Amino acid sequence: MRLPFPNIHSHCTSSQILPSIPCSSPLFKLAPRRPPLGVRMDSSTGPTSSSSTSVHHYHRRQKDKIVVIMGATGCGKTKLSIDLGTSFQSEIINSDKMQVYRGLDITTNKIPIHDRLGVVHHLLGVFDPEDGEVGPSEFRLTAGLAISDIVSRQKLPLIVGGSNSFIHALVVDRFNPELDVFGGASVSTQLRYKCCFIWVDVSLPLLCDYLCKRVDEMLDLGMFEELLEHFRRKDPANQPGLRKAIGVPEFDRYFKNHPPGTEGREWGEVRRGAYEEAVREIKENTCQLAKRQIGKIMRLKGTGWDLQRVDATEAFMEAMKVRTASSNIEKNKKRWMEVWERDVLEPSMKIVNRFLEE
């Protein structure tokens, strides 16, 4: 079983660029986009009427069941989604606002096809970043269509990602894109789906330690080379959504001073210092992102959303031992898997089973 936390190597080690990772097709052809004007932001179905007879005979359809896996970046949501996806008849809908775009697969940390273990993924790498930014309203529309498609085939939709604004927009009964619920506006507890929320939580100091090491791993996998090619071929200004992905603005400053095409030159102290500063900023910004995401989750929970927390802290502690062990590696891996299954997978399985039996 492949660990989601590979061994760490120096981020200054160059590596070959990975091949492009194709992603599942959307439910319909994504033509050049424009905001979904005219799309109803509430979940009402059927006609409305002032007639008491019409109201009396109108019955709202039963809500579709969905499972939503939430948590800060790097907390293990993807691993848990695959574990659950291979245990239930289900398909995954990505709710990470950077992973919806095509390109920068390493930088945005998309799950490779071989790690999906045959579980179908929706809205993963399907939008052209040059067609404009995907906002909460458009995600509500497209993810809603994906849910309807999955449910129509009698499968369970798993919504997976750290973008809480997307999750909120998707599940609330009436969505107003003008209101910022994470900036002070009231959060509705009226949902258009029957939701099972699983919150994967990890102690923030431990998570930040892991995230810093994950940045090194991504660089070792070819993140710098991927960004180099991206800046060589694209103008980030033409990609208003994807240019916000952590790694792009930090290296934008680097490439302005050291443009693509000059990478063959010997790295002097100034260039190496600029590279290391970009990496430092990526690590700091990733940890700040995790902190903000946890804050948003706490806000949703505090306003009445029934988020069921599973604590992955000890599992992460064991995983960190695996990556630093010089001996007894297989024994440490076995221990890590045991703790993950005990603390995260088994409680999540029980939560989903109870939800489906309701």
TrEMBL record:
InterPro entries: Dimethylallyltransferase, P-loop_NTPase. Pfam families: IPPT (PF01715). It comes from the Eukaryota. The keyword ATP-binding applies. Keywords: ATP-binding, Cytokinin biosynthesis, Nucleotide-binding, Transferase. The keyword Transit peptide does not apply. SUPFAM superfamilies: P-loop containing nucleoside triphosphate hydrolases. PANTHER family: ADENYLATE ISOPENTENYLTRANSFERASE 4-RELATED, TRNA DIMETHYLALLYLTRANSFERASE. Belongs to the IPP transferase family. This is Adenylate isopentenyltransferase. It comes from Hevea brasiliensis (Para rubber tree).
